[in-house]
Specification:
This protein is an alpha/beta fold and about 280 residues long. The chain has helices at about 35-40, 50-60, 75-80, 85-95, 95-115, 140-160, 175-185, 200-205, 220-225, 225-240, 260-275; strands spanning about 5-10, 20-25, 70, 125-130, 165-170, 190, 210-215, 245-250. Strand 6, helix 8 and strand 7 form a beta-alpha-beta unit. The longest helix is centred in the middle third of the chain and has 22 residues, at about 95-115. The radius of gyration is 20 Å and the shape is globular.
Length: about 280
């Protein structure tokens, strides 16, 4: 779904040759502001998506390999379409408009999830929906529970009915809806963690018996720390998170182009060295 974007020159020193500009979404106003915009917006259709890459993978992946496709950007897409600032106003000034757009977006991702679950090469569905910032959720927990999580629940049910897992990537502090994500939505794993919110070792101790915990080596730490500190942190994280089951080593968020390559490789190398038994 097309949203209004802003871009500027990527000032990243490391590997900047791979990308000239950095883009982000306009936060004030998106392409939908009125009921009339719903009628004129070029809403995408799942039937128009090129699934050629998945068709190729279906026929060529080894039997013991799989792939995943990010889906269910429900909350993010709604805020992108309105602009986050406008979205916040509309939740009070015109909640019916928010609901109408949410219905269109939700149904799109339900159909998309159902389609990718028909591919045997896709063993899991990975929902991706940033709903938080450093100290809390980007909308009230009540709004998220009522308007957003039911769509994720439907996506999870579609995945589970096809004997596939449902993972969720979510940035920010979503403590107030975590129990709902686990108990009601039925997520099987959670990704994206920051030390400034809750170190992944604490996350694992709190939720590791209920869902799998993915990643957690803080991206800011990976950018700034020296190799010795990185290796020590990875080793300590594994010693705690590998006490039971359901942990996968990785970065706390996306592997950004400004992470020093050697720091990333040190994390991976320390993981390979770790002995479970």
């Amino acid at each position: 779904m097309t949203c209004l974007g802003v871009n500027a020159h990527d000032t990243t020193v490391i590997n900047k040759q791979y990308r000239g500009n950095r883009e982000w979404t306009e936060e004030h106003q998106g392409p939908i502001q009125t009921w009339g915009d719903i009628e004129t917006y070029p809403w995408p259709k799942v039937s128009d998506i090129d699934f050629g890459p998945l068709d190729w993978l279906k026929n060529n992946l080894p039997e013991n390999m799989g792939c995943y496709s990010l889906t269910a950007h429900i909350f993010e897409t709604i805020t992108f379409l309105f602009g986050y600032e406008t979205f916040c106003y509309k939740t009070f000034d015109d909640p019916d408009l928010i609901n109408a757009v949410g219905e269109i977006v939700g149904r799109f991702f339900i159909e998309y999830t159902r389609t990718i679950c028909d591919y045997p090469c896709v063993p899991l569905v990975w929902g991706s929906d940033d709903m938080g910032f450093r100290t809390g959720t980007l909308a009230s927990p009540e709004f998220l529970k009522e308007k957003i999580l039911p769509w994720h629940k439907q996506c999870a049910e579609i995945a589970h009915d096809k004997n596939k897992l449902y993972f969720l990537h979510n940035c920010g502090n979503i403590e107030k809806i975590m129990d709902d994500l686990i108990n009601d939505v039925g997520i099987d794993a959670k990704h994206s963690f920051e030390d400034s919110i809750m170190p992944v070792t604490r996350v694992y101790k709190k939720y590791g018996s209920r869902i799998a915990i993915l990643g957690g080596i803080d991206v800011d730490f990976l950018c700034r720390a020296d190799e010795k500190s990185i290796r020590e942190k990875v080793k300590n994280t594994l010693q705690i998170c590998m006490e039971g089951s359901g942990y996968c080593l990785g970065t706390g968020n996306t592997v950004a182009n400004y992470i020093p390559v050697n720091n990333y490789l040190a994390m991976m190398d320390e993981g390979r060295k770790y002995k479970i038994f």
